[in-house]
Design brief:
By secondary structure, the protein is mainly α. The protein is built from 15 helices and no strands. It is globular. It starts with a helix and ends in a 21-residue tail after the last helix.
Length: 371
Amino acid sequence: MRTREDIYRENKDVAVVLVFIVAIIAKMVEHLYLPAKYYYDNNRIFQTMLDPNFKDRWGGSYKVTADFFRRINIFNLDTFNKWSIAIAIIFNIIIIILLITSKGIDLNQTIFLLMCVGLLNIYVFNIGKEVIQIGIFTMIFLAIMLKIPNIIKVALCFGLLYWESTFFRNYYIIIAFFFITILVGILIIKKYIKKITLFKIIIIVLALYAMVAAFLFMASIFMHNDFIEVMECKNDSTLLGATSTIDDKIEHGNNIGLFMINYIINSVRMAFPIELLRAGIFYIPFIVFEGFFIYYIAKSLYRLYSSDFTQILALSIVLGYFMGSVLFEPDFGSFVRHEIATFPIIYILIFNKNNWNLKKDKGGINDNYKK
């Protein structure tokens, strides 16, 4: 008689094949159907990579990305499509290797995995800044999975996030701060709270908002320039021309209280982007993807006591990344594109036995599946 583990291993084997199929379909969508505006930044980076003196080149992280691809272009790839296919081959092979080495996945995990593969191949696996981002998170993945003391894992994760902030995206120092704060909070919860309930999850969410408010208060005193950057980062969001702009609904100036009201509103909008339905059916996959993502975040919080330290690290990073994204992301498209680039950490958090659909499980892992 087949056990659940047998069924989930079979799901994994089917998913390996489906990864190939979904990746091919996604690349066809990218190259044949999506308008050029979706890859405006990518094409600008590509042109700068080919010609460092390109007249419309941008600086900052765009220049860093163009320089990176120029240095690794040992095969002299000279078209955007060649880069897209080459990068997709490399990273899809990595996904398949991860999948093959897993213990299995249930139906929900299979659906979510294939959604991740589709989004990755359309928005991340091409010449662009997201490749560097997923590369950093792949290094964080390796740091988490190494058989080293936990304190060193934490230091490596923080160090890699901080390192990215020094040369690529400066707001990653904020994500690093959020990561450490959330990790400490989770470890305290595991030690002193005996059982997780819905009410306690709500308290945890409120504590996350309190963390952001505390950060803003400290930044206003000790990092005033960074504080002003955060306060003003969405001022021009309505001018971006994006269909899915995440604009502030309340004028706040530099008032932290009013900013936090906006922050809470925007975090709910980003977690449950129902408003995208007004933009057309094309955005439904974004809504479904985010629904799965938030479902697994809530599930991870509910099952803290059956999570090992690697999953707790992943949860802390993912929560820190989400809380940081609410501060800076200008539109839903950018948010999802950057969020899916954290896939190596999402993989640790979601694609494990702890998230299998076990009907007999009542808030902890079933006795038959304890580690």
